């Protein structure tokens, strides 16, 4: 699909320093859960050496029929313009792109090891599998500093209620145990094996900050996962 112009319909805060943007859906636009698009600002009020285009994963599944992206709001020219963008503002949009999508073989389990805003393509995949009632066994270990830093927690809790094949494991790295009764600390091999009985069986999906993705990759290989079964998408801090 060639680039076209779309409008911002609404924006909302979904976690600390994290905003979701709802965009106009282009006519006839089709995508697969896990894919992304490129969003280019048109005549922004400021710019920097990183330019006016960024890739963002689609947070909602195709079956939810909304074009939604989400991002951490960092101190860059692009992010400042995006954060202050008024409803109705147009951007250039090009997509869909990418092959970070849920595997087809439903008898093979999926395990997602995700940090922070890396949840965006994963929320889409889990929503689509839940809506389509696929039989993939899915386990999500989702790491954030605190619950207030974790976007889309309530959606993931809802999908777990709707989908008996989906287990949601939120993990907090900087929360007092008095306030949080879930998993604490960093995802390690012991935690992984509490939720994944046979580490060699699943296909793994990694998404989050580059350092976390590298650490999770090493953890999986050390734990006995097949490297051919590890799929990774890095979300740098742009």
Helix content: 10-25%
CA-based gyration radius: 18 Å
How are the strands of the biggest sheet laid out side by side? 4-3-6-1-2-5
- The 3D shape can be described as globular
Order of helices and strands, N to C? EEEEEHEEHEHEEHEHE
State the secondary-structure class: alpha/beta
- Tally of alpha and pi helices: 5
Name the poorly predicted regions: none
Rounded mean pLDDT score: 95
Percent strand equals 25-35%
Number of strands: 12
Q: How far from one another are the termini?
A: 25 Å
Q: Main β-sheet, in a few words?
A: 6 strands, antiparallel
Q: Could you give the topology of this structure?
A:
Elements: E1 4-15, E2 18-23, E3 36-41, E4 53-57, E5 67-72, H1 77-84, E6 90-97, E7 110-115, H2 119-131, E8 138-144, H3 153-162, E9 166-172, E10 183-184, H4 189-195, E11 203-208, H5 210-223, E12 230-234
Parallel strand pairs: 7-8, 7-11, 8-9, 9-10, 11-12
Antiparallel strand pairs: 1-2, 1-6, 2-5, 3-4, 3-6
Helix pairs in contact: 2-3
């Amino acid at each position: 699909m060639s680039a076209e112009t779309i409008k911002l319909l609404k924006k909302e805060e979904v976690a600390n320093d994290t905003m979701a943007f709802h965009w106009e859906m282009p006519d006839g636009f089709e995508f697969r859960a896990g894919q992304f698009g490129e969003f280019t600002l048109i005549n922004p009020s400021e710019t920097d050496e990183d330019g006016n285009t960024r890739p963002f994963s689609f947070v909602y599944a195709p079956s939810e029929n909304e074009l939604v992206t989400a991002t951490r709001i960092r101190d860059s020219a692009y992010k400042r313009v995006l954060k202050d963008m008024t409803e109705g503002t147009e951007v250039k949009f090009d997509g869909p792109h990418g092959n970070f999508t849920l595997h087809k073989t439903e008898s093979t389990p999926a395990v997602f090891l995700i940090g922070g805003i890396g949840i965006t393509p994963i929320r889409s995949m889990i929503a689509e599998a839940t809506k389509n009632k696929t039989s993939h066994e899915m386990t999500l270990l989702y790491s954030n500093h605190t619950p207030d830093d974790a976007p889309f927690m309530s959606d993931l809790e809802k999908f777990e209620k709707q989908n008996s094949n989906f287990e949601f494991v939120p993990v907090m790295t900087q929360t007092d145990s008095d306030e949080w009764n879930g998993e604490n600390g960093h995802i390690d091999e012991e935690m992984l094996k509490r939720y994944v009985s046979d580490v060699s069986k699943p296909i793994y999906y990694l998404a989050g900050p580059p350092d976390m993705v590298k650490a999770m990759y090493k953890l999986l290989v050390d734990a006995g996962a097949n490297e051919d079964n590890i799929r990774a998408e890095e979300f740098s801090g742009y």
